[in-house]
Design a protein that fits this description.
The complex is a heterodimer of chains A (274) and B (313). Chain A is an alpha/beta fold and 274 residues long. Chain A is 45% helix and 11% strand. Chain A has a five-stranded parallel beta sheet with strand order 1-2-3-5-4, with helices on both faces. In chain A, strand 4, helix 10 and strand 5 form a beta-alpha-beta unit. Chain A is globular, with a radius of gyration of 17 Å. With 313 residues, chain B is an alpha/beta fold. Chain B folds into two domains: 166 residues, 3-Layer(aba) Sandwich (Rossmann fold); 130 residues, Rossmann fold (3-Layer(aba) Sandwich). Chain B has 13 helices and 14 strands. In chain B, strand 6, helix 8 and strand 7 form a beta-alpha-beta unit. In chain B, helix 9 crosses helix 13 and helix 10 crosses helix 11.
Chain lengths: 274, 313
């Protein structure tokens, strides 16, 4: 590992800390939103936007595309877009409010948002369409799409998995934020996703399993994905729901049923500032 | 007289418009032989996208394709386009206001032998209720091609019905497709006006001819656009009429009958509305013309309903 990469990792850790603080603040002000799943993907999103995606301008036709198929985790994406300067920070504090720019799930028209999403499975299909279109138009950009683990219950995901492999979309990377918890309970107690990696492999995808909170592993996986030809890549990122705040970690209560109280916010911010 | 099915007309029109509009692609869900996109697949394989029997993924992928300036034409049977994949059409295509064109075959009981599971009698109602969608139901090959050309030139989500059985050509080559405007086929300022759409238009015209022999005049208006419409465009065809008929191969709930009912009310007109269509029940297997008779939208049904009304008044 070069010194340069080490410095990047430190910077990314700092950025992810700011993003987590903004996530919990925006959800506190909105009085609702999905904090657990936003925290579990915060490191992946930070890496994507600050070390991976080539987006010289949000309207550049050749920009890399990112689609948040697990749209309920948009507080994380909004915090990243704000940190990138695509939207102003003050918009974060009006998340989900009447008349606000930032909707409860991503909407077209929010700067930096590529696709509506939130109805699970659909952002993934959208991303596949973008990747196939890029092939048809001989565009060089790459397409990244983040799915939830619970989202993989949707039949549409597996329709898309067949489609992506059949059309040899090697310009597409799907990342599954595998935090092991879905809306009501642990994934294993809903319809059980395991063996998840084998499922994607069986559908013809190049599968890489990583720790989704380790920037070096994330970097490695994205680099490897670029070298694989004729097959799309699925990165199964093992993550922790609520990552960063001890009392939220692995606790189904923090999927999205409530926002933090003032006291909880204070405790969470203290932990995030450590 | 030229006779062709609307799905066949669609297949031909795709070939005819392929060079004029080089940015459209055809998406198929393993029904190219049924929707008549197989000719396009043979001639333009690089612009034909096989999605497999996976309509939900097809619909949302179309939105993604359109985000790059491609015009995706999503094709499958209407039951699947309007129900299996409707949430993708709503939450991705319509909500994102993407330039996706959905062209669906196998509509109404005209589907025939395949039976109720494959007979879409709700598609117009469903698509009409979704914001941003334009909803079109042409009645002959000329109108279908004109509508297809219009939608390829115009940005925004569109749902269009084709049809399975062959229908005679009604319009002339120079026909101009005027979105949202009622298309007047017979206008004599009669007491009776019949609004109709799609597969039933030629039947209504045949009935009008038969009634004329009995010295009964009826006006006939073809409705090719279900949304958007402007009530004032309907006023000239509603004012002063005693009886307004609607004839459609669609559930009478949410289809043409409902649309015309709204137009009557919004124009503040007092007229009796008689809705001929599928009366809120599922279809059956059978020959399309025989089924039309059984379900009350065949020529005899239309003629007898009108005659009865004229005799009793």
């Amino acid at each position: 590992m070069s010194l340069e990469k080490m410095i990047d990792t430190l910077k990314l850790t700092q950025l992810a800390g700011i993003i987590r603080k903004n996530i919990i603040l925006s959800i506190y002000y909105s009085k609702s939103g999905h904090v657990g799943g936003s925290f579990s993907c915060a490191d992946i999103l930070t890496f994507l936007y600050f070390a991976e995606l080539k987006i010289p301008d949000i309207s550049d036709p050749n920009r890399d595309r990112f689609i948040l198929s697990k749209g309920h985790s948009c507080p994380a994406l909004y915090a990243v877009l704000s940190e990138k300067g695509f939207i102003t920070e003050k918009e974060l504090w009006k998340l989900r409010h009447t008349g606000a720019l930032l909707q409860g799930h991503p909407e077209m028209g929010i700067p930096g948002i590529e696709s509506p999403s939130g109805s699970l499975g659909q952002g993934f299909s959208f991303a596949l369409g973008v990747a196939l279109g890029a092939k048809k138009l001989e565009k060089e950009f790459r397409v990244y799409v983040l799915l939830g683990d619970g989202e993989c219950n949707e039949g549409e995901v597996w329709e898309g998995a067949m489609f992506g492999a059949f059309h040899r979309l090697d310009n597409l990377v799907a990342i599954v934020d595998y935090n092991k918890l879905q809306s009501d309970d642990f994934c294993e107690n809903i319809t059980s996703l395991e063996p998840l990696a084998e499922k994607w492999k069986a559908f013809g995808w190049n599968v890489i399993e990583i720790n989704g909170h380790d920037f070096k592993e994330i970097a490695f996986a994205f680099d490897l994905a670029k070298k694989i030809k004729k097959r799309p890549t699925c990165i199964i990122a093992h993550t922790i729901k609520g990552k960063g705040v001890s009392f939220m970690e692995n606790n189904p209560e923090w999927h999205g049923s409530r926002a933090p109280t003032e006291e909880e916010l204070k405790l969470a911010l203290e932990e995030l500032e450590k | 007289m030229v006779r062709t099915s609307l799905r066949e007309a669609f297949g031909k029109a795709l070939l005819e418009l392929a060079k004029e509009f080089e940015n459209f692609y055809v998406l198929d869900a393993d029904v190219a032989g049924g929707t008549f996109t197989h000719w396009f697949r043979e001639k333009y394989p690089e612009r034909f996208i096989q999605c497999g029997i996976a309509e939900q993924n097809m619909m949302a992928a179309a939105a993604g394709l359109s985000s790059l300036g491609i015009i995706p034409i999503v094709t499958c049977y209407a039951v699947f386009a309007s129900m299996r994949a409707i949430e993708q059409a709503r939450n991705m295509v319509a909500y994102g206001n993407f330039n996706v064109k959905i062209v669906a075959s196998h509509v109404g009981i005209d589907v025939g032998p395949d039976g109720a599971t494959h007979q879409a009698i709700e598609d117009l109602a469903i698509y009409r209720a979704i914001p941003n969608f334009t909803v079109i139901s042409p009645c002959d090959d000329i109108e279908l091609k004109a509508a297809l050309r219009w939608m390829l030139k115009t940005k925004g989500p569109v749902y269009m019905r084709t049809g399975r059985s062959s229908v005679p050509r009604i319009h002339f080559d120079d026909y101009h497709f005027d979105l949202g405007k009622p298309d007047v086929l017979i206008n004599r300022d009669s007491d009776i006006v019949i609004f109709t759409s799609g597969i039933t238009v030629h039947r209504v015209l045949n009935v009008a001819k038969k009634l004329e022999r009995r010295s009964i005049n009826v006006d006939v208006v073809n409705i090719h656009t279900f949304k958007p419409v402007n009530p004032s465009d309907f006023y000239p065809f509603l004012k002063g009429r005693k009886f307004v008929f609607t004839v459609e191969d669609h559930n009478i709930i949410g289809g043409l009958g409902t649309l015309i009912g709204e137009m009557i009310l919004e124009n503040g007109i007092c007229a009796k509305l008689i809705k001929l269509g599928i009366k809120d029940k599922f279809g059956k297997s059978g020959e399309p013309e025989e089924l039309a008779g059984d379900f009350g939208i065949g020529e005899k049904n239309i003629e007898q309903t009108i005659l009865k009304l004229v005799v009793n008044n």
